[in-house]
Design brief:
about 140 residues; alpha+beta; 3-stranded antiparallel beta sheet; two-stranded antiparallel sheet; 4 helices; 5 strands
Length: about 140
């Protein structure tokens, strides 16, 4: 944003009624809160698992929790893992080997490069009911 635009914005805000200034201030506070939450999530994803467990264990305490490694081991033994957001499959997008997509609640991994479709129709539709297959995709999780 150019300095002239900032100055114009300041003049506009200064001319607002008190009610509109309060509303504007609320909007600014909401945007700052969203930004802070996004930064917090990014920071947590950048941390090691032990550091995340420490952060979670010390939310209501002070300092590092010496039991964090034990807590992490219990969580891993119980099957807890970080959930990675998997995008839904989109027609027309080019997928490559190793890409993962979500289709009907299941996660699939692409087995080839330059894949643009998910299902393939097999069989002769004039002779039999065609089967839909996924030759370029392998189910890897729920």
């Amino acid at each position: 944003m150019e300095i002239e635009q900032v100055a114009e914005l300041a003049r506009t805000v200064a001319a607002l009624t008190q009610r509109h200034q309060d509303f504007f201030n609320g909007l600014v506070a909401d945007e700052r809160a969203k930004s802070a939450q996004a930064e917090t999530i990014a920071r947590l994803w950048a941390m090691s698992d032990v550091a995340v467990v420490n952060a979670a264990a010390t939310v209501h305490g002070n300092g590092i929790n010496p039991e964090a490694l034990k807590a992490l081991a219990i969580l891993r033994e119980a099957g807890f893992v970080r959930e990675v957001q998997v995008p839904a499959f989109l027609e027309g997008i080019v997928y490559n080997k190793g890409d993962r997509v979500m289709v009907r609640g299941r996660i699939y991994e692409c087995l080839s490069d330059c894949v643009t479709g998910f299902y393939r129709c097999e069989g002769d539709p004039t002779v039999e009911v065609p089967r839909l297959t996924t030759p370029n995709w392998q189910a890897v999780g729920a």
